[in-house]
Design a protein that fits this description.
The chain has about 220 residues and is mainly α. Helices cover about 60% and strands about 0% of the residues. It is built from 16 helices and no strands. The longest helix is centred in the middle third of the chain and has 12 residues, at about 105-120. It starts with 8 loop residues before the first helix and ends with a helix.
Length: about 220
């Protein structure tokens, strides 16, 4: 399997079956497209691994891109319209000419977007993290658990892990409001992740239980 290093045998069969060689397959996978059938559809829409980020950033599926392409709408215009809630439709020629020029996202935005897409994070979630300036490595665990990126910043500042934040099932502002005044802010993550309510944590703390002891319970709950 020369040239297919990094692919399993099953992946090689699927990429070959879709008509891709090892270099093309590697390029598509690096661009965040991990399903050969999707790569084939992107190719049908005239996308390449280098240009597919225009559609991906807009949260478009390859099927959406194919339909817009068949209707003659340029990728950047299709992406703009998709973000505005439009479905694929014919666009008058003059309206196409009046479409704003495409804005190329910064390389770090594209890098984060592609990393999250490779991790099978939905495109709309990946775009929110990428556009907000998250580093891909830092964002991955939060994005995979579908934590809103704004909430993720607050939870992380409070000391929560991505898994603990997701388990709360609540927006960060609600967690902060419910714990406000119960324990010191820097202890909220330990007490909450240990499985205690704010009232229980306040009672335990008043009886002499420390945040360090709560951290032991927290570790046992993971």
């Amino acid at each position: 399997m020369t040239g297919w290093e990094g692919f399993t045998q099953g992946e090689v069969r699927r990429w070959r079956g879709a008509g891709f060689g090892p270099e093309e397959a590697a390029a598509w996978r690096e661009a965040g497209v991990t399903v050969p059938a999707d790569a084939r559809l992107w190719s049908t829409a005239a996308a390449t691994p280098a240009t597919v980020a225009t559609w991906q950033r807009a949260g478009m599926t390859p099927q959406d891109a194919v339909r817009w392409h068949e209707l003659g709408v340029a990728p950047h215009d299709a992406a703009r319209r998709h973000l505005a809630g439009e479905r694929p439709r014919r666009v008058p020629w003059l309206a196409r000419l009046a479409a704003p020029e495409p804005v190329t996202p910064a390389p770090e935005v594209v890098d984060t977007l592609r990393r999250l897409l490779r991790a099978e994070v939905p495109a709309d979630v990946a775009r929110a993290y990428a556009d907000a300036g998250w580093d891909g490595a830092e964002a991955e665990e939060w994005a995979r658990r579908r934590v809103d990126q704004g909430d993720a910043r607050v939870f992380r500042a409070l000391g929560f892990t991505a898994a603990e934040a997701a388990r709360t099932g609540l927006p960060a502002v609600e967690v902060m409001a419910s714990w406000w005044g119960a324990v010191p802010l820097e202890e909220v993550a330990a007490w909450c992740a240990a499985g205690l309510t704010p009232e229980e944590a306040a009672g335990q703390r008043a009886s002499g239980v420390t945040a360090e002891q709560a951290a032991v319970l927290r570790a046992l709950s993971t």
